[in-house]
Amino acid sequence: MMKTIDTNSDIFIKLEEFAGFCRANAGEEGEGTKELREAFEMYDLNNNGLISASELQQILTRLGESCTVEDCVKMIKSVDSDGDGCANFDEFKKMMMVGGGEGASDGVGSVAI
Ligand SMILES: [Ca+2]
Ligand SMILES: [Ca+2]
Fold first, then answer.
1. What's the whole-model pTM score?
2. What confidence score (pLDDT) does residue 110 get?
3. Which of 51, 59, 77, 107 has the least CB density, counted as fewest CB within 10 Å?
């Protein structure tokens, strides 16, 4: 009996630690998500909740990147999990994460060549 109770309390503590860990992570993610949301709204010129290739191209041009609409179509396609040709917030998040890595720059580079 005692052993069972001990085991349970161990598990309970672990779960509580785990929950705390999750909460801490969620908090950090919340901060990042807020910034991403602001960036998303900046990219979403007509505020329809989706970033189209031409919106992406206009913003990148404004940021001094010389991208063609075709480049942007490809960038969106690489994260477009629902296949509607536009990036929703989840897909945009993915694009931003990939954008920081080597994969996206490689992709854009090979497009430019
Ligand atoms: Ca839009
Ligand atoms: Ca999509």
1. 0.61
2. 39
3. 77
